[in-house]
Amino acid sequence: MHPLRLLLIVSLAVAAAAGIAFGALLARSGVRAGEAYTIGAIVFGAFLVPWAGVFAWAVRRAGDLETLIDRTRYVVRDEQVAITDRKYHGEVDDLARAIEETRLAVVREKAWAAEQRTTLEQIAASIGEGLLALTPRGRVVLANERVREMFDVRGNLLGRPLIEVVRNQTLLADFEKALHGKVSIHRIDIGGRQIEIRVFPVKTSSEVAAVALFIDVTEIERLQRVRKEFLDDFTHEVRTPLTGLRSAVETFDHGDLTREQEEQLRSVMLRQLSRLERLARDLAELNRIESGELVLDRKAVDVRELLGDLAGEFESRANIVLSKGPAYWPAYADRDRIQQIFTNLLDNAVKYGGAQPIEIDVAAESGQVVVSVSDRGEGIPPADIDRIFNRFYRVDKSRSQHVPGSGLGLAIAKHLVLLHGGSIRAFNRAGDGATFEVRLPAIQSARLPEEPCQNFV
Fold first, then answer.
1. pTM of this structure
2. For residue 11, how many C-alpha atoms fall within 13 Å in the half-sphere facing its CB?
3. What's the average model confidence in pLDDT over 168-184?
């Protein structure tokens, strides 16, 4: 029973007892019964009225307090109920305004916390790396989509134990260390990709105890490997002309040379300098193509006519046989760059094809101009076909000092073909020798490539 109701009952009982007792005393003293009861009723009223006033005041305050308590509970339950939408009495109204200010502060704090969490989730989703956070009890409190992709996990991860998300023992051990305040950094293989995992403890939060960042370093490792191979190949290519130059300079330093010997040394030095210049020029050209700085000037190009002109230029170096066919084979291309492509292919065929004829075939197929350049040399070892277009790559590096060139011709040719939206491949002929097949968009089906040229090793 409410204390105020109990107070009312006690007040009524006390007033009634006082009135009855006073009336009984009057009756015993000789006062008439009617007058005694009247005086008793007056005494009852005299006792009851002050208590009734106090009771009414208390009931009103109690009603305000009960309403205020109920609405405060709504605030605790995160229900948006206003506190001061009604008038309270006396000091309770001041208390209500103070609680309303507290409620509004709580609402602002919750809105700010929700905004911060949304921002954190958006940042976690946009960083491109996996992010996973655990509670002190080892349950997931934050995980972005990248984590789901890496570990192939479906559904909502929040609240799930780590063992249900991650099956890697090394990672589980790293999280266990982080929960005990230790930092761990490892690289593991996940689905054929190299992932660097950094797990570290969080000591300033009661909700988050450990955080892991999953960084895909597969591409970084590939680029580091490419860089190393490039430096190795570049060093190999530069060493030969530098060695020739050093030898010539040292011979000059010794003196006592005949005019004929001096001319011969000058010829060696000029040849090696030309080789270095060609290497620098080809590297600069390849860099322009790969960086997207090269802009093609496309128009209709008669591929057969262009190949006929090139065959005439190579006539003094090799026997070029151009297959018969229609006189006009139009391609949608940059004439200078197409000429550069086939010059590199013919130069390669002359170097490795020996004294045998070089055959050029031109045809049309599926809206493309198809050009095949075939030699009758030793061919390409099957293990080297996939790498034949790599920069500096030679089938037999031990022969590079005897075969002139920068080792970049085929790489440049492939990049230029791809920039035109075409394709190039190499394969061995059924008999002997190798064939390089170039496919370029014909004029009637020509369109710009949808993606820029991709970098190749």
1. 0.52
2. 18
3. 85
